[in-house]
């Protein structure tokens, strides 16, 4: 495993002022979180912006799974189907950055 002197995501992840919107999921369960993300993607806000962040609570240390994997899998599914063009974890690991393509598929 390579050793990184600095966080390698810091250079590729956008800063908050580069975003067109942020969806705060807090500690919702997986189903509710994905429903909110789907609502964001269907909303009028999407027509006004292309760069978004999805944030959720960090691990509490109690062994309960965070939203990192379920939301990540869902975003990768969207990317495979052309609904988003880019998807990266946020530098702090408590969310994702994603971009919509210039033109959404029909």
Q: Can you give keywords for this protein?
A:
4 strands; alpha+beta; four-stranded mixed beta sheet; 25% helix; Ribosomal Protein S8, Chain: A, domain 1
How would you characterize the overall build of this protein?
The chain has helices at 30-42, 68-80, and strands spanning 21-24, 51-55, 86-89, 95-99. The model has no long low-confidence stretch (mean pLDDT 82). It contains two helices and four strands; from the N terminus they run E-H-E-H-E-E. The chain has a four-stranded mixed sheet, with helices on one face. Helix content is 25%, strand content 17%. It is globular, with a radius of gyration of 14 Å. It has one domain (17-99): Ribosomal Protein S8, Chain: A, domain 1 (2-Layer Sandwich). By secondary structure, it is of the alpha+beta class.
